[in-house]
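ok so I'm stuck.
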Amino acid sequence: MQDDNTRLLGQETRGSISAEELDTVPWSYGDTDAMVEFSTDELTALCPVTGQPDFYDLRLSYRPGERLIESKALKLYLWGFRGRGIFAEDLAATLLKDLVAASSPAEMTVDLTQRVRGGLEIRTVVRHSA
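replied:
not stuck anymore, here's the structure
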């Protein structure tokens, strides 16, 4: 988490960010049974073998602890995978590890589907629970 002087929210930003730069914001309703969900069909990465682009549908859901993931920071973090060679299964696990480290949720699920390429669709679901 960044300090208030280096937050991305409200700042003009160009380019992707690393997992260590992910912004979170305080969540004051820890006693509330809440589920936060993000979804996108704009996540891309490269096949680490062929270098061809892979296109993904991502569904991220989590029960916040004391911090919420800031949406602009999440978008910029995901953008960083565009030029990165990574298998679908590794991408799902990397997303989970990085987002749990940034936000310390009570639980989190990353549901990642690699769109059909070569006749196959790959879906990977990884979970974290406190």
